[in-house]
Amino acid sequence: MAQPAWQDPVLLPLDTAPVPEYGSGSLADLLPTLAAGQEVPGFTAAIPELTPADRNCVFLIDGLGWEQIKAHPDEAPFLHSLLPTSRGGTGRPLTAGFPSTTATSLASVGTGLPPGEHGLPGYTARNPETGELMNQLRWKPWTAPKVWQPHPTVFQRADAAGVHTAQVSAPTFEQTPLTKVALSGGSFLGRLSGEDRMDVAAQRLAAGDRSLVYTYYSEVDGKGHRFGTDSDAWRGQLMYVDGLARRLAEQLPPRSALYITADHGMIDIPFDEQSRIDFDEDWELRAGVALLGGEGRARHVYAVPGAQADVLTVWREVLGEQFWVASRDEAIAAGWFGPTIDERVYGRIGDVVAAAHDDVIITASVNEPHESAMAGVHGSLTPVEQLVPLLEVRS
């Protein structure tokens, strides 16, 4: 609850922010662990609970976090029944990484690196070379992919080591820059229907003595953004994807492990002024800010030269009871983006980083009308956004 005007706000201490389990239990650790079990050179098993398999398939369901599966046993009976298998039978989730958003998480999955190394630290981030905001999901404005993210993917390294490697997804993703920098390597097989993706993933899994196959479904996230996770449309997608997961699990060839995971969870935010703080209408938050990046629950704030300290002070005073508000160096020191930060990535992180604690977002109604109208959102460090499943089926 907000303090009376004559009292200083009670700021959320930065050390109360949950830090992703980089190095032992984050999305970035999944493929390196699987590749290590397939004896791909240069990898070690970062998630110790997982048992090696000759054939590994990762099914990533966009937007379906750990808390959402737990809360919907009737709509997702198959996925719910697998909760005890998560993370090698410990019944525990993984952490997505910060921010818990698709571009960042997919890059973490595919490269096996935390955001501070792969360099996609949010939905939008400043390009220090141009001073422009770079949308890392839609890749606008155009930026040379291999300059922005130069590290090889786990798929490329596995393919070079003789592992049969494939991605099965919607055809529209084949040539996107995000796919090229995060998920390329081996074969890409585009299929429109979810059922076809499951069938082809199982076929590709069986095609090699050692196989690494990735498949993806996006519409749980899509319906959550548009209608919220308390909607019939979202629950319908959950029921559908539960059937897809069962379909794939029933087709696993021998010596296979299927891992069902997600890139983030999701939280519904009410449409009221207390829950949706409009940056474009708030003169205090705008003062000294050159660019607003990130997304509603994980903001990168880029100050005009010389105004960094003042912007940090104001954002803490205005938002510090509801958001963890850190300077760039504080967020890095806290480990939000991983244990190390590549030099090329440092300037992409905001001068101020604001991660939501309460059920609240910072919208930008003028500059981000589409994002500001979303019912379901994500991005921060809270469990409902950060925790993702690692459900397992073996043959």
Characterization of the model:
The chain is α/β, with parallel strands linked by helices and 395 residues long. It is 33% helix and 19% strand. It contains 18 helices and 18 strands. The protein has helices at 30-37, 66-71, 77-81, 86-89, 102-111, 115-118, 145-148, 154-160, 177-182, 194-206, 219-227, 232-249, 283-286, 308-319, 328-334, 343-346, 369-372, 383-386, and strands spanning 55-61, 94-95, 124-126, 133-135, 164-169, 187-190, 211-217, 256-261, 267-268, 276-278, 289-295, 298-303, 323-327, 352-356, 361-363, 376-377, 387-388, 391-394. The strands form six sheets. It has a six-stranded mixed beta sheet with strand order 6-5-7-1-8-18, sandwiched between helices. A hairpin with a 2-residue loop joins strand 11 and strand 12. Helix 10 packs parallel to helix 12 (232-249) and helix 11 runs antiparallel to helix 12 (232-249). The longest helix has 18 residues, at 232-249. It is globular and about 65 Å long. The protein starts with 29 loop residues before the first helix and ends with a strand. The mean pLDDT is 97.
Quaternary: single chain
Portion in beta strands: 15-25%
Rg from Cα = 20 Å
Residue runs with pLDDT of under 50 for 5 or more positions: none
For the biggest β-sheet, the strand order reads: 6-5-7-1-8-18
**How many E strands?**
18
User: Structural class of the secondary elements?
Assistant: alpha/beta
Summed over residues and divided by their number, the pLDDT gives a mean of 97
